[in-house]
Amino acid sequence: MPYKNGKPQVLIAEDDRFLGNVLKTKIQQEGFDVRLVADGEEALAQINAAPPDILLLDVIMPKKNGFDVLAELRLKKGGTDIPVIILSNLGQEDDVKRGLALGAIDFLVKSDHSLQEVVNKVKIYAASAVGVRK
Amino acid sequence: MRRTIDAELLSLVSHELRTPLSRMRWIAESLLDPALGSLTTGQKGAVDDMLRNTDELNAAVEILLEGATVALHAGEPIRTAFSLPYLVNHVIKEHPAAPNIRVSRRFAPSVPHVSADPKGVETAVRLLFSAVCATSPDEKLIVRIGASGKLVHCAMCTGKDPGPRFSTAFRATTGRDNMGASPILESHRLRLYVAQSLIHASGGAVHVSRKAGPVALSFSLPRSTP
């Protein structure tokens, strides 16, 4: 089985509780095991405790923003193996460039994507991540 | 500096405008999710209407932001030497290799634009050069300078033709068509000069984009000094 516990692990770092819970529920319905954290420091702690198969990362968060989380993650051993999708309401070109330069595989602007589109992205990248590990 | 502050403000404003829109959109989509139960025809119509209006408002916000972005970047490019600290902050620091690069921020007043840790400058120039000439940033850069101090030759150690974009930059910088042979100089000052030349030849802005596995890396240099 390519996944621990038989299910792909998704970590959502999202400080908006409503959006985070809606997304968590939707992704769980697709058969993923989902953890939800509300700040950047907690995200890094969760990654240290159990690296997810995919990380959905907000940018504007308390304690540590998503860009800083991503930069720190890339310095960790194995950190580059975790596909990171930035899911933010920042959407200016400079913000997108910055996220991709830090190694995010995709940058989704929340207001431009439906819940189902986000979930579809997670499924696609989670599948390709397993392909890489094989 | 002001442009940077304006850009950051615009980024923040865009975030604040989009946040309630994304909430509204995702709430409406959740209500339509059959897993939560069915809606009456009237309820479904109301939620559809909410979604449609959210999309319209989102489109209006995008138009406003696009207009503000265009206004922010309006104006003639300033053809002066670019600022190294700005380059370091906006290019090097955001590059994945940044943790391996140390850059000194102490600048000798007598040596404007040209004082930094050689590794940082070298990396910056290699990235810039590779973008302009469409070559690999890992290739070694060789530059040659004429007696007048002008750039006369710049190529990769593999001897590859640096490409038409570089030729254009070369002509614009030196006013010459031929890249003649001169002693090879590899000081970081010279490499920075090459970067400056390339930036000037590009109208003060260089867009860098390359593929690194599945990740597209791209960034832009500022059009003017801060």
Strand content of chain A: 15-25%
Residues in helix, % of chain A: 40-55%
Given the helix and strand composition of chain A, which structural class is it? alpha/beta
**Mean pLDDT across all residues of chain B, rounded?**
53
CATH uppermost class of chain A: Alpha Beta
Largest sheet of chain B: 3 strands, antiparallel
> How many domains make up the 3D coordinates of chain A?
1
Number of strands of chain B: 5
CATH superfamily of chain A: Response regulator
Beta-strand content of chain B:
5-15%
Question: Which series of helices and strands of chain A comes N to C?
Answer: EHEHEHEHEH
Total strands of chain A: the figure is 5
Features of the shown structure:
heterodimer, A: Rossmann fold, five-stranded parallel beta sheet, 5 helices, 46% helix, B: 226 residues, mainly alpha, 2 domains, three-stranded antiparallel beta sheet, 5 strands, 49% helix, elongated
Can you describe what's shown?
The complex is a heterodimer of chains A (134) and B (226). Chain A is of the alpha/beta class. Chain A has one domain: 3-Layer(aba) Sandwich (Rossmann fold). Chain A is 46% helix and 17% strand. Chain A has five helices and five strands; from the N terminus they run E-H-E-H-E-H-E-H-E-H. Chain A has helices at 17-29, 40-49, 66-75, 93-101, 115-133; strands at 9-13, 33-37, 54-57, 84-88, 106-109. In chain A, strands 2-1-3-4-5 form a five-stranded parallel β-sheet, with helices on both faces. In chain A, helix 1 (17-29) links the parallel strand 1 and strand 2 (33-37). In chain A, helix 1 packs across helix 5 (115-133) and helix 2 (40-49) packs parallel to helix 3. Chain B has six helices and five strands, in the order ααααββαβαββ. Chain B has a three-stranded antiparallel β-sheet. Chain B has two domains: 2-72; 84-220, no CATH class. Chain B is mainly α. Chain B is elongated. The N and C termini of chain B lie close together (5 Å). Chain B has helices at residues 2-32, 41-72, 84-90, 118-133, 164-174, 188-201, and strands spanning 141-145, 151-156, 184-185, 207-212, 215-220. The interface between A and B is medium-sized, with 33 and 32 residues.
